[in-house]
Amino acid sequence: SLSREDFQRIPELAINPLGDRIINAFFPEGEDQVNFRGFMRTLAHFRPIEDNEKSKDQNGPEPLNSRSNKLHFAFRLYDLDKDDKISRDELLQVLRMMVGVNISDEQLGSIADRTIQEADQDGDSAISFAEFVKVLEKVDVEQKMSIRFLH
Amino acid sequence: MFLLLPFDSLVVNLLGISITVLFTLLLVFIIVPAIFGVSFGIRKVYMKTLLKIFQWATLRIERGAKEKNHPLYKPYVNGIIAKEPMSLEEEIKEIRRSGSGKALDTPEFELSDIFYFCRKGIETIMDDEVTKRFSAEELESWNLLSRTNYNFQYISLRLTVLWGLGVLIRYCFLLPLRIALAFTGISLLVTGTTVVGYLPNGRCKDFLSKHVHLMCYRICVRALTAIITYHDRENRPRNGGICVANHTSPIDVIILASDGYYAMVGQIHGGLMGVIQRAMVKACPHVWFERSEVKDRHLVARRLTEHVQDKSKLPILIFPEGTCINNTSVMMFKKGSFEIGATVYPVAIKYDPQFGDAFWNSSKYGMVTYLLRMMTSWAIVCSVWYLPPMTRQPEEDAVQFANRVKSAIARQGGLVDLLWDGGLKREKVKDTFKEEQQKLYSKMIVGSHEDRSRS
C-alpha cells in the first residue's frame, strides 16, 4: 500500500501547486495508507467517457467516470471540510495554494468575493455542488478531466 | 577402495588439463590482443549469434502466449498515457474557452482553472518523466535472462532448455573466465603503475604509463565482454580539455579509458578502489579528492583549473550528471565543470540493453552485486560517439553552456533531454519549481504589471 511520502517522491507532482490536495484525494478519511483498490478507484474518475456507455446502464449505479462524478472530484479539491459547500475561506485557501506569494491578500479576497457572487444563487455566500455544476455546465469536462491510455 | 584411486587421479588430471587449456586460451585469445590493441572479432560473431537466438525466443513466446490466450505484457518506452504538450497558459485558456463565451484576454479567475492542475497532477501519478529514469529500462524482446522478463512462464520445452543452457554457459563458463580476466587486469594495473611510478619523470615514463593504463583497461573490457563501437574518433579529447559524458554506470570509465588516455577525477575511497587509485596516481597525475574536500566547490574548481591549464597533463574525464541514470535520458548537468573555461569534448554513450543492462541502480544493488550481475549477463554492448569540441560563447553563462552540451549529447545518443536534476533520485525537489508554476498562474488571473496599470 502507498503512503503520502510515496506520492511526494514524484518530482512533477511535488511542484504542482495543488499537489497536496490531489494526494489527499486518494486517502480515505483519516487514513494514511491507500491500497491498490483505493488507488484504482480514485484513478477511475479519469477514465474517458465512451459513447456506448452513455446509453448502457441507466438503472445501475453511476460509473465513477461520469461527468457528475468528475465534477464532484474537482469540487472535493475545494471543499476541505466536506460540508458540500465551498465557503469563502476554502476558496481563498485554494487560491493561495495556486498563486503562492505573487498576489496580495486584498486582491485575492476580491477575486474570491467576485467568484462567489457570480456563482451563488441561493444567497448563502458559499458555492454548493449544484451551483458549482451550473457555473461549469458548458465546460468540456469529459475531455479535460480524462486521461487516455496508449494502446 | 583400490578402484577409486586411479579414478581419482584421472579426475585430477582432467581438471589440471582443462585449467591449463583454459589459461592458454585466455592468454592467446584475450590478453595478448588486449596488450596490442587488436581484436580477433570473436565478440562480434558472438553478438550476432545471440541476436538471432533472442529473436527466435521472442517470437516463440509471443506465439505461445497467443495459443494460451495469456495477455502479453508489453512495455511502452514512450509512456503509457496520451499527453498534450501545451503550456500552462494555453491549457487553461482552452478550458475557459469551452466554458464561456467571455472575452479571453482579460485576466481573471475561473472555477474551471482547477481542472488543469488536477489533471496534470493525476497524469504525473500515472506516468511521470523522472522516476522512471532511476530504474532499469524495460525491454521489448526477451534476452533469455530471467531477470528481465515479466512473461516468464512455461511456454515450451525448447525455450526452457535454451534458457537453462544459457544459465549454464553464463555462470559456469563465462563467469569464471571473466573473473579471471578481471583479476588479471586489476592486478596488472596496480603493479604496472607502481613500477612505472619509480621511473624518473620524462617521455619514457609517460609512454609506458599510457600503455600500461590502456592495456589494463582493455583487459577489463574483455573481462566484461564489452563490445564497443567507437564513432568519430577524430574528435577524441586532447590535452588541456575536459571530456564530459552521460553517466550510466561505473563501467563508463573503463569503456572510455580503453580508447583514450584520461586523467580521472573523483573521491578517494577505501578498500580495493583506494589501492587502485593510489597506484594509478603514481604513474600519471589524476585528480583525487579527500572526502572533506569534495564539499568545497572552490577548491575543486581551483584544482581542476590548475590541471587543465597545464598542457602536458591529460584531459579530465567528468560525468556532470553526478549520478547514474538509466540510459534512456540525460539529466541536468552540474555547472561546475563548465565554469572552468576549458574546451569541452562531449561524448555520448548509449548501451544496447538487449545483451545486458549496464545501469547501476545504487539503491537496489551494491557494487559487488552489480559487478556480478554484469559478469553474468551475455555481454555489454554499447556505442560511443565523440562529438566535436565546444567552448563557452561570450554571451552564455555556465548553465546555458551546460544545457547546450547536454542537448548535443542527448541528440547524438538518441536519449531524452531532461532538465530535471539526477539528484532527485535521493533528494526532494526544490520549491523554486513550484514557485515558478505559481507565478505563471498568477499572471493568468491578475495579469502582469503592465496590464493592471492600463486598466
TrEMBL record, chain A:
Any one GO MF annotation of this record: calcium ion binding
GO cellular component, as recorded: cytoplasm; nucleus; plasma membrane
Pfam families: EF-hand_7
Protein's cellular compartments: Cell membrane; Cytoplasm; Nucleus
Domain of life: Eukaryota
Predominant subcellular localization, coarse grouping: membrane
Domain EF-hand: 66-101, 107-142
PROSITE patterns tied to this protein: EF_HAND_1 (PS00018), EF_HAND_2 (PS50222)
Biological-process GO terms, alphabetical: protein transport
Signal peptide: none
Keywords: Calcium, Cell membrane, Cytoplasm, Lipoprotein, Membrane, Metal-binding, Myristate, Nucleus, Phosphoprotein, Protein transport, Repeat, Transport
Family, similarity comment: Belongs to the calcineurin regulatory subunit family. CHP subfamily.
The protein, known as: CHP1 protein
Organism, as annotated: Neopipo cinnamomea
Organism phylogeny: Eukaryota, Metazoa, Chordata, Craniata, Vertebrata
UniProtKB/TrEMBL annotation, chain B:
Residues in Phospholipid/glycerol acyltransferase domain copies: 241-352
A biological process term (GO) from this entry: triglyceride biosynthetic process
Keyword presence, Transmembrane helix: yes
Pathway noted in the entry: Lipid metabolism; Phospholipid metabolism
Organism superkingdom: Eukaryota
GO cellular component terms attached to this protein's record: endoplasmic reticulum; membrane
Coiled coil segments of this chain: none
Protein's UniProt keywords contain Iron: no
GO MF term list: glycerol-3-phosphate O-acyltransferase activity
Annotated InterPro entries: LPCAT1-like (IPR045252), Plipid/glycerol_acylTrfase (IPR002123)
Keywords annotated in UniProt: Acyltransferase, Lipid biosynthesis, Lipid metabolism, Membrane, Phospholipid biosynthesis, Phospholipid metabolism, Transferase, Transmembrane, Transmembrane helix
Segments traversing the membrane: 12-42, 155-173, 179-200
Locations listed in the record: Membrane
Family, per entry: Belongs to the 1-acyl-sn-glycerol-3-phosphate acyltransferase family.
The protein's name: GPAT4 acyltransferase
Source species: Edolisoma coerulescens
